[in-house]
Specification:
Elements (H helix, E strand, L loop, with lengths): L54 E7 L1 H14 L3 H11 L2 H8 L2 E4 L5 E3 L11 E7 L1 H14 L4 H12 L8
Helix pairs in contact: 2-5, 3-5
Length: 171
């Protein structure tokens, strides 16, 4: 029944090898459940995430305002931008306009002559970065015009000072 293998010849031509065992049958595979094809409502190229892009916007603040903003932001665990949003929500526009408006001596006709108030912060200023979306930046520029602020820095410094109840001379 079993044949022996012949010794290889010296010329390199060996007779075919004879095996002494029968080949094993593969084990029966376990039945598999057919997984349904996943359905995709949108292909990845169609998915649009609505994530606003932000950009750094620099504002210069008096040191006292900067220090109070920084400490309040750390204390409340919010960003400077979030604190600014709260400040604009809390401070009435009329209070902001009153703080930013300045009237000087009257003209000969009795009408107050508008003057430009010199903003002296005493001790320089400190630059702060606010991360604003394009919509927030456009709103801030519109608010600057509405409130009568000469620039964004004065507007932001004033609204922070009013919100934090700081009395800063020249502001």
């Amino acid at each position: 029944m079993f044949a022996k293998s012949a010794a290889p010849k010296k010329d390199g031509n060996a007779p075919p090898r004879v095996t002494t065992h029968l080949p094993k049958k593969p084990a029966a595979a376990a039945p598999r459940a057919v997984a349904p094809e996943p359905t995709v409502a949108h292909t990845p190229s169609e998915v649009v995430l609505d994530v606003p892009t932000t950009a750094n916007t620099s504002v210069s603040l008096p040191p006292a305002v900067f220090n109070e903003v920084r400490s309040r932001s750390v204390e409340e665990r919010i960003s400077n931008t979030e604190l600014l949003v709260r400040a604009f929500a809390d401070v009435p526009l009329k209070s902001l306009q009153a703080k930013l408006s300045s009237t000087g001596p009257t003209k000969s006709g009795g009408m107050p002559m508008p003057t430009t108030r010199r903003r002296r912060y005493g001790g320089g200023s400190t630059q702060m970065q606010l991360r604003l979306t394009p919509e927030q930046l456009a709103w801030l520029d519109e608010m600057k015009t509405t409130a009568g602020a000469p620039n964004r820095s004065v507007l932001v410094a004033t609204v922070y000072a009013l919100y934090l109840k700081l009395d800063i001379p020249g502001l």
